[in-house]
């Protein structure tokens, strides 16, 4: 430990800045001495906020202070973790897991907790002033250049009025951002250091949830984000007053699109590898994320008979996707295909439905008619499951819910009350615009009639719910599959002898990014309907689920496929 | 791929817009207003690459909604438009102009006038130059309103006659309105375009103050300057002016000639034919025949007694004089295939006889000449007419029978 006397006040009362330097707690003098961080034991619950006052030029003209981009993200994560806690996630997630993941990330990306954090070497750039200190301007990239760099990310449509209002911004204007390292952030070669982005905050959250094996799938998480239960859009409005955002910060912290499942998931994998994390805690059959559990959940939500669960378990067992080794995430291991638990579970259900009902737009209706006949004479016991009835009920609900969802999307409000501007010059224009917007919203809001403002739906894991108490018979959980099963050699098998493969050959993911290519017209409508149902529940594209279905089928019928590689899309089981 | 359906700001606003569109098409104004509320934040994003940006969308959509919504008032509308004016400087004058139109449609003439005057005094650097066309229109419409005031005062004066002192102020105001109107109206009609209303008003002013030369020049320009789009009304106005001032038949005919070329079915073709028929010049008479045949090619004239009367008269005259039968032959040549079914069917014969005896008389004459006494139409009508013992039909029958051989030469 450091025991020298302070040069300024002669005290021996040292603390550590997050930059890893020693500072005197009495007089706040910062030394050049750094402390090597050898191990990864972290001091729990320290926050970057506690940088010594000296390093900050406080009391700027606009009441702002210096802040680094990673501090911003830290705040975002904190808010998200709090929201998750409010949703019922265990507090460990926020206080231990997420925190530590984050610190590890900071260390690995050399933003803190290391010898020479990248941020410190950056000269403090002028904040939001148009004072053009033209020295060393050759080093500074132009505003236009930086704005165009991250355009491909698509996070923020380039605001032409801000960036290219031609004559107004000259090449020599100093790069503007509220944060100290905003411009550096956008410039960094992201290949090496896995630059932090807003979608990545969700990757962090999911990673933490996965580590704790919390009962929340990625699709649940993303849905909660869209529904507003987890801060994401406009989360910067919770930044403290003195952290001013402007210029390039907007590119970093403002989102104008909803997080995409694939993107968040892949980033999570990258992150886990980057952080050198060990094998995640095992996913066993008592975990929520285990296919047996998730299948039960989705079966309930899809209003399908509970008896189908036996079948999903059988499929899971047969293709060994219930094994902990298969399900557990091992970061960095590129040979194994990574598991998307929610997609996997619904894909299993789809395969089971195909096994039992064929779903070729003929057989399922035939079976349904049989079941209907038998139901007429069936007085005792539960009714036989009729595909036709189920279809009608589900289609009705699905259409209603889809319509609601579509309208909600059309009514989405992206802007928040905290106005944003690229530079001080633009401030008055932005505020004026905002005023007009508010006026117009009020004016037309009054003309909207007595429309209740859409209340945030209560967060729930289930979007569709069915109760057996409904007397209209719209709940199919207790229905029996007897009509479509038969006994053979002591085993219950499906009456349906056939099966059709979604694809004979899987594509190579590396080449075209997909394992299969789904086009609605190429497949039976019943199949498409089932995909549409789960696509709605998970808020992902049907092709996604289709891919997974293909993989499962190939595992299931592996032997048969090896024997006859060329023909038979339709197999006899 | 999932990226294709990425929901982002732009996409969600596109979807919002389509909901607004649907609601408007179904006249669900409340719903349209509701979705518009969510669309409005697009103003805070820049869409300069789009063909039509959100501010223009909102202006147009908002205007529609406010016009139709049951709870909206003129006051609300005005306040909305004022905001629209601040949103797009490139559109400022256009918005002002359309605002003025709205006020006029709602009978708020004074307000419209104020708006136009205000807009006229707007200056905004190079925008003023770019929006020159709109500025001219604004001045023109203001001039029109000046004309309107002028004409009100003129009417007052005419009513009261030239007695009483109080008329002096009215007269002075009238003259001042005239000056203001004249300046602006004159300017706008210089630009090639369709300015019917402005031309009429301007000519009215000129005539009142006795400046006939200027009026004639204006009308000539309007009708004959090739830079102006072909406009039948221009010729009509010129003709009416010449007629009012007792000009020669020659000039009247020349004014209508072009009208015949552009709009052979125009209602003035009757006047035209009448003048031409009476002319001493053979060419003119020939033209007259052409004109009346051409007019009757149009369905709108089928039951016009006057038109048939013109044709009948001229045809009769030619038959009797036994000169220029070839004229009829020429005109009939291109029509003999379809006029019989178009004008002279048996069904029409019955109907015409039932509804309009005079019509059937005139038509029967023409049919009898062109198609012979044995044609369906003539036979039916003359039979009916004679049965009803109407004198002229007997005469008609005799006439056609007498001249039947002519038919053979024509066909």
Automatic annotation (TrEMBL), chain A:
UniProt keyword terms in alphabetical order: DNA-binding, Metal-binding, Nucleus, Transcription, Transcription regulation, Zinc, Zinc-finger
Domain Rrn7/TAF1B N-terminal cyclin: from-to ranges: 73-240
An MF annotation (GO) of this entry: zinc ion binding
Span of domain RRN7-type: 2-32
Domain Rrn7/TAF1B C-terminal cyclin: 257-447
An example Gene Ontology CC term for this record: RNA polymerase transcription factor SL1 complex
One Pfam family from the record: Rrn7_cyclin_C
Descriptive protein name: TATA box-binding protein-associated factor RNA polymerase I subunit B
Protein localization: Nucleus, Nucleolus
Organism the protein comes from: Balearica regulorum gibbericeps (East African grey crowned-crane)
Lineage top rank: taxon: Eukaryota
TrEMBL record, chain B:
UniProt record, GO biological process: transcription by RNA polymerase I
InterPro entries cross-referenced by the UniProt entry: SL1/TIF-IB_Component, TAF1A
Taxonomic superkingdom: Eukaryota
One Gene Ontology CC term in the entry: RNA polymerase I transcription regulator complex
Short name of one Pfam family: TAF1_subA
Protein name stated in the entry: TATA box-binding protein-associated factor RNA polymerase I subunit A
Source organism (scientific name): Balearica regulorum gibbericeps
Taxonomic classification: Eukaryota, Metazoa, Chordata, Craniata, Vertebrata
């Amino acid at each position: 430990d450091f025991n020298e006397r302070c040069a300024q006040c002669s005290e021996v009362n040292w603390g550590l800045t997050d930059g890893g330097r020693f500072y005197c707690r009495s007089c706040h003098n910062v030394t050049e001495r750094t402390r090597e961080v050898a191990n990864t034991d972290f001091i729990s619950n320290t926050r970057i906020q506690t940088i010594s006052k000296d390093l900050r030029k406080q009391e700027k003209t606009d009441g702002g202070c210096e802040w680094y981009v990673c501090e911003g993200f830290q705040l975002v994560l904190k808010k998200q973790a709090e929201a998750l806690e409010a949703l019922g996630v265990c507090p460990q997630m926020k206080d231990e897991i997420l925190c530590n993941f984050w610190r590890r990330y900071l260390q690995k990306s050399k933003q803190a907790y290391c010898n020479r954090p990248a941020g410190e070497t950056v000269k403090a750039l002028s904040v939001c002033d148009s004072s053009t200190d033209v020295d060393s301007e050759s080093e500074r990239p132009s505003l236009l250049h930086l704005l165009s760099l991250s355009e491909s990310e698509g996070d923020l449509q380039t605001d032409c009025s801000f960036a290219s209002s031609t004559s107004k911004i000259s090449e020599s204007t100093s790069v503007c951002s509220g944060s100290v390292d905003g411009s550096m952030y956008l410039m960094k070669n992201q290949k090496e250091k896995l630059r932090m982005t807003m979608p990545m905050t969700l990757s962090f959250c999911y990673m933490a949830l996965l580590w704790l094996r919390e009962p929340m799938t990625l699709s649940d998480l993303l849905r909660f984000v869209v529904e507003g239960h987890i801060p994401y859009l406009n989360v910067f409005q919770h930044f403290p007053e003195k952290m001013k955002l402007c210029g390039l910060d907007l590119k970093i912290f403002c989102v104008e699109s909803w997080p995409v499942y694939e993107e968040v998931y892949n980033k999570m994998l990258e992150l886990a590898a980057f952080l050198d994390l060990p094998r995640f805690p095992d996913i066993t059959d008592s975990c929520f994320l285990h296919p047996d559990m998730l299948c039960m959940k989705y079966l309930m939500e899809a209003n399908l008979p509970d008896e189908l669960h036996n079948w999903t378990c059988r499929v899971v067992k047969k293709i060994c996707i219930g094994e902990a080794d298969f399900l557990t995430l091992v970061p960095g291991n590129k040979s194994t295909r990574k598991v998307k638990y929610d997609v996997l579970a619904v894909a299993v259900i789809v395969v089971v439905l195909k096994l039992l009902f064929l779903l070729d737009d003929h057989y399922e209706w035939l079976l349904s008619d049989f079941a209907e006949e038998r139901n007429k004479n069936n007085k005792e016991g539960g009714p036989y499951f009729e595909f036709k009835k189920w279809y009608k009920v589900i289609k009705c609900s699905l259409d209603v819910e889809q319509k609601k969802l579509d309208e909600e999307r059309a009514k989405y409000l992206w802007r928040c009350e905290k106005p944003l501007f690229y530079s001080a010059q633009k401030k008055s224009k932005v505020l004026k615009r905002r005023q007009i917007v508010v006026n117009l919203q009020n004016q037309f809001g009054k003309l909207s009639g007595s429309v209740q403002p859409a209340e945030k739906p209560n967060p729930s894991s289930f979007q569709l719910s069915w109760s057996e108490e409904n007397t209209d018979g719209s709940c199919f959980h207790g229905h029996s599959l007897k009509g479509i099963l038969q006994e053979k050699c002591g085993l219950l098998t499906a009456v349906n002898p056939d099966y059709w493969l979604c694809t004979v050959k899987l594509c190579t993911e590396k080449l075209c990014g997909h394992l299969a290519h789904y086009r609605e017209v190429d497949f039976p409508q019943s199949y498409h309907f089932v995909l549409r149902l789960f696509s709605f529940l998970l808020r992902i594209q049907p092709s996604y689920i289709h891919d997974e279905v293909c993989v499962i089928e190939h595992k299931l019928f592996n032997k048969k496929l090896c024997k006859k590689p060329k023909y038979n899309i339709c197999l006899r089981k | 791929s999932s990226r294709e359906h990425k929901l982002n700001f732009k996409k969600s606003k596109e979807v919002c817009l389509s909901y607004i569109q649907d609601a408007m098409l179904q006249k669900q104004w409340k719903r349209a207003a509701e979705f518009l509320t969510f669309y409005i934040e697009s103003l805070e994003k820049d869409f300069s690459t789009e063909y039509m940006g959100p501010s223009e969308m909102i202006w147009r959509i908002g205007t529609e909604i406010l016009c139709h919504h049951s709870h909206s008032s003129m006051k609300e509308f005005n306040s909305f438009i004022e905001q629209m004016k601040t949103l797009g400087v490139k559109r400022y004058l256009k918005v002002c102009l359309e605002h003025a139109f709205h006020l006029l449609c709602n009978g708020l003439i004074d307000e419209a006038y104020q708006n136009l005057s205000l807009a006229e005094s707007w200056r905004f650097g190079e925008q003023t130059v770019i929006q020159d066309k709109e500025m001219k229109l604004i001045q023109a419409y203001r001039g029109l309103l000046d004309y309107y005031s002028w004409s009100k005062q003129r009417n007052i004066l005419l009513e009261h006659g030239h007695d009483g002192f109080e008329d002096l102020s009215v007269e002075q105001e009238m003259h001042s309105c005239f000056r203001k109107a004249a300046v602006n109206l004159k300017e706008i009609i210089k630009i090639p375009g369709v300015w019917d209303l402005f031309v009429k008003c301007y000519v009215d002013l000129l005539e009142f103050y006795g400046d006939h030369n200027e009026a004639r020049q204006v009308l000539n320009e309007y009708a004959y300057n090739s830079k102006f789009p072909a406009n039948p009304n221009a010729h009509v106005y010129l003709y009416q002016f010449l007629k009012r001032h007792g000009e020669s038949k020659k000039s009247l005919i020349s004014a209508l000639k072009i009208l015949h070329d552009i709009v052979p079915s125009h209602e003035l073709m009757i006047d035209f034919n009448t003048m031409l028929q009476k002319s001493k010049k053979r060419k003119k008479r020939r033209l007259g025949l052409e004109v009346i045949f051409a007019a009757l090619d149009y369905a709108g004239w089928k039951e016009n007694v006057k038109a048939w009367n013109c044709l009948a008269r001229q045809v009769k005259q030619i038959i009797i004089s036994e000169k220029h039968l070839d004229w009829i032959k020429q005109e009939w040549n291109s029509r003999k295939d379809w006029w019989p079914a178009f004008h002279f069917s048996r069904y029409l014969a019955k109907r015409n006889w039932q509804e309009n005896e005079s019509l059937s008389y005139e038509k029967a004459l023409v049919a009898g000449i062109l198609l012979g006494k044995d044609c369906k139409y003539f036979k039916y009508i003359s039979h009916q007419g004679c049965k009803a013992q109407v004198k002229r039909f007997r005469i008609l029958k005799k006439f056609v029978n007498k001249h039947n051989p002519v038919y053979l030469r024509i066909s």
